[in-house]
Design goal:
The chain is α+β, with helices and mostly antiparallel strands and 68 residues long. The chain contains 2 helices and 3 strands, in the order βββαα. The longest helix has 18 residues.
Length: 68
């Protein structure tokens, strides 16, 4: 899995894979914010459920405009 990098007004930013908040300005190789990383230590089925919940929240926030 690759980090999510966005332009952020020319500064660059790395986003969390689960909740899409800005982890840091500038490009790093981090994949998750501290909160989501602490959730990542759970078992794989629990983590998949958390990731699915986060994706559903993002889809609701975006008005289901993304492709399924």
């Amino acid at each position: 899995m690759k980090p999510i990098h966005k332009l952020n007004g020319g500064l660059g930013a790395t986003l969390c894979h689960l909740c899409s908040i800005i982890i840091t300005t500038g490009n790093t190789q981090d994949l998750y914010c501290d909160k989501c990383l602490s959730e990542r230590v759970k078992t794989d089925p629990e983590f998949k459920q958390i990731k699915e919940r986060a994706n559903n929240l993002m889809r609701l926030k975006n008005g289901f405009k993304d492709k399924q």
